Amino acid sequence: MEASLCKSKGVIKLFNRFFPDECADSAYKIDYEGLYTQGYRGLLFDIDNTLVPHGAPADQKAVALFKRLKEIGFRCCFISNNQKERVASFNQPIQVSFIENAHKPSVKNYRKAMERLGTSQDTTIFIGDQLFTDIYGAKKAGIRNILVKPIHPKEEIQIVLKRYLEKIVLHFYYKEEGIS
Ligand SMILES: [Mg+2]
Q1: Could you tell me the distance, in angstroms and rounded to a whole number, from the CA of residue 127 to the centre of ligand 1?
Q2: Which fold has domain 17-154?
């Protein structure tokens, strides 16, 4: 095996703890009906940059999505690292469960969310936009996960730095998956 290939395999091994199970362009473009048919019953969502731009209230699109998810038969819970005031007001027109100040990637609140919904690792899906918090935490908790593209490209500096690191990890993920 060539040295460069060995090196690349090593990096993939190092990074694959952050690799999402799946990717989607948007939380609004996921086949939720299909997931329900597969037996999934609980959906855990990040909020900021997954469903709306960072700090934005729930818009019509978000409200309509959760109305549809409830009609399909899903139980939903938001898991956000943001504070209670922000998460509660986002949830006001939606009315599902939520956990604020969740300290993702700590697995504690992923488990708490499943307990609340009465679902298990086998029947729950997590959807979020960040690798090192959302996806890493879901993987540690043993929950199937979907990485979505962040809604708003303009972000705070600490998130911009994380995005740079995410790009490096995703480069190896796409390589491993044969996407590029
Ligand atoms: Mg987010």
Answers
A1: 10
A2: Rossmann fold (3.40.50)
